[in-house]
Amino acid sequence: MRSDNFISPKRFSHIYLEESAKDHPKTTEILSKFPNSHVIPIDSYKEVFNPSSQNFQTQKRSPKLILAKRKEQFLYSGSGVAPDFGYQFFYYNALVLNCLYNCSYCYLQGMYSSANLVVFVNNEDYIRETAEQLKLSKPLYLCISYDTDLLALENTLGYCKEWIEFANIHPDLIVELRTKSANFKSIARLKPTSNIILAWTLSPESVIAEHEPLTPRLSSRLKNIKEALEAGWQVRLCLDPILNVPKWKSIYSDFISRIFEQIPGDKLREISLGVFRMNSDYFKNSKKRRPDSYLFYLPMETHSFVKSYPEELEKEMFAHVEKELESFVSKEKIHRLVASEMQSI
What we know:
This protein is 31% helix and 21% strand.
């Protein structure tokens, strides 16, 4: 089943509601969109989300929604396996834990024991903490959609709109909103701002079909990117992860040609490249939970607790993809994320 931009009122059969979140206005707003769900009160989201004996892939077939209130830790320092694009003050937050999609290479299946979706309803506390950090750290680069896909959830949560409006009055805040969705229309009516970066993760159509179930097709994502560029938004393309699939050279060559049949390269802010990589503990857990995926059985090397392809293969992949890209964009816009130079935290 492919994703669309509408989350059905029947999407979540059960919603767990943390006691501290029950009176929050966002809780009322979200519950109104799922009138058929059974609401189960709980003391803490951790009693449902954290137990280690859960079956991640079984839960993916029918994930439940958990509404909670975050009590602390509204900002994290940037991960060592994620790009900082040269910003000294690099942070991310976790407004939602887990994603609607189920990509076979995703680190979340190794990071969390549950596939249920946790939504923290108190976005205003995340914004307040970010405003405080901005007094100390400028410019501040913040990724708000790392452990989820916020744009895919925008029709339900409305968080993208709240952060875009916040960034509009804080020019020293640079926000990356990463997505695989085809839901640009949910924010299309908003005024584009130069310090909001819409970052679309793209993969070849055959990779999407085999390894990114539930995500929108490449054609849908490209259509959204084109619309965003025409409206004046800053757009970053993330060809990440590049996968060692059979015939990867020809597949990625055709993929890049297809992108630039529709997207004007000179309008892009930049392109980010990275091959498959994962924290070694998350890799170990993911391999156990995805015996159906050959991706975890390919040759790998480990550097500083980061699992990735052998260094020579990574260099070959970067060289090939960059050569193809340079036919359409300037070299200065292409950023490599080299796995052997990363440090997991």
